[in-house]
Design goal:
Helix content is 36%, strand content 25%. It has 289 residues and is an alpha+beta fold. It has 3 domains: 5-51, Uridine Diphospho-n-acetylenolpyruvylglucosamine Reductase, domain 2 (2-Layer Sandwich); 57-174, Uridine Diphospho-n-acetylenolpyruvylglucosamine Reductase, domain 3, CATH 3.30.465.10; 179-287, CO dehydrogenase flavoprotein, C-terminal domain (Enolase-like, domain 1, 2-Layer Sandwich). The protein binds flavin-adenine dinucleotide. Flavin-adenine dinucleotide (FAD) binds at residues 27-35, 37, 52, 58, 72, 99-100, 104, 107-109, 111-113, 115-116, 121-122, 164-165, 190, 192.
């Protein structure tokens, strides 16, 4: 690895100014579990790492009138033990448990996972089914967008030059929404997802499905929602037959590839099974309320 400078600004604007000053030669550093590996393999012409883990607005987990705010630099280990996450977003806790091994979870951040933007990012499905939004800090101030719009392509987000991912919001209306996350990898630990999936639903007073959400990873260029499958569920009784139909529609909304880990057909079968199981478990949780 080539030598580079290191800066640890304590405000977003200070970090943004450093990025503007150094241009392409600056890289943002979170926990470093993706970035340092990348720099080892492709050192490039980096002159400075701008560590954003000391910026207070990027840290912490709190409940406000708007919902649950998760700082982008919250580590998996922190999320896994945080009382608000355990109470309101157990599927995000479950997803965090599946990332890498203890070392990765103690350093890696949820924001770094979203910015890396690989199709298999394990944080994405459970956030997408809760209609998460993200706040982006930039030279002209902050903007908030739905997480779904943040993902643009494989390893490509909508972040503009000198912009930073500051925080993630789960809307108040979705705190505690019955939901479930599943990941399938080739090993129990230290495995990227062949497929990961999450679902979330409410049951209304007639015990019909309301606001269904399905999100799936590693089967398209970015983590995706399955809007046709969701539409098929809305306003209906959650029978096994209906959930099976929705899972089949979700398969048709994916574009998995063949690679050295699994064939596209195997991934389609996983989507079918995992979507059904995520929906079924969400319905079970909702039925007990
Ligand atoms: C051994 C190992 C196992 C892993 N297992 C998994 C796994 O099971 N599932 C999974 O999804 N991932 C896995 N990963 C990938 C990685 O750990 C996660 O994506 C992690 O969440 C990245 O977070 P980080 O804070 O370490 O990001 P960093 O490595 O610090 O940064 C990642 C990217 O995001 C940018 N960035 C970071 N923070 C910000 C910010 N606030 N604003 C703008 N840009 C930013 C960086 O410039 C870099 O491009 C694994 C990695 C390793 C090394």
């Amino acid at each position: 690895m080539r030598p580079f400078e290191y800066a640890a600004p304590t405000t977003a604007q200070e970090a943004i100014a450093l990025l503007a000053e150094h241009g392409d030669r600056a890289k943002v550093l979170g926990g470093g579990t993706d970035l340092i590996v990348d720099l080892k393999h492709k050192p490039g012409n980096i002159s400075i790492l701008v560590d954003v883990t000391s910026i207070p607005e990027f840290l912490g987990i709190e409940e406000t009138d708007e919902g649950l705010r998760i700082g982008s630099m919250a580590k998996y280990g922190e999320i896994m033990e945080h009382p608000l996450c355990l109470e309101y977003t157990p599927e995000i806790v479950a997803a965090s448990h599946t990332v890498g091994a203890v070392q990765t979870r103690n350093l890696g951040t949820i924001g770094g996972n979203l910015v890396t933007c690989v199709p298999s990012a394990d944080s994405a499905p459970s956030l997408l089914v809760l209609d998460a939004e993200v706040t982006i800090a930039g030279p002209d101030g902050n903007r908030r967008i739905p997480l779904q719009e943040f993902f643009v392509g494989p390893r490509k987000t909508c972040l503009q030059p000198h912009e930073l991912l500051m925080e993630i919001w789960i809307p108040k209306a979705n705190l505690g929404k019955p939901s479930h996350f599943l990941k399938f990898g080739l090993r129990k630990g230290q495995a990227l997802a062949l497929v990961n999936a999450a679902a979330a639903i409410w049951l209304d007073d007639k015990q019909q499905i309301a606001e269904p959400r399905i999100a799936i990873g590693a089967v398209a260029p970015t983590p995706i929602r399955a809007p046709k499958a969701e539409a098929h569920l809305a306003g209906k009784k959650p029978t096994d037959e209906l959930l099976t139909e929705a899972a089949e529609i979700a398969v048709s909304e994916c574009k998995p590839i063949d690679d050295f880990r699994a064939s596209a057909n195997y991934r389609r079968q996983l989507v079918r099974t995992m979507t059904f199981r995520c929906l079924k478990r969400s319905v079970e949780i909702a039925s007990k309320r």
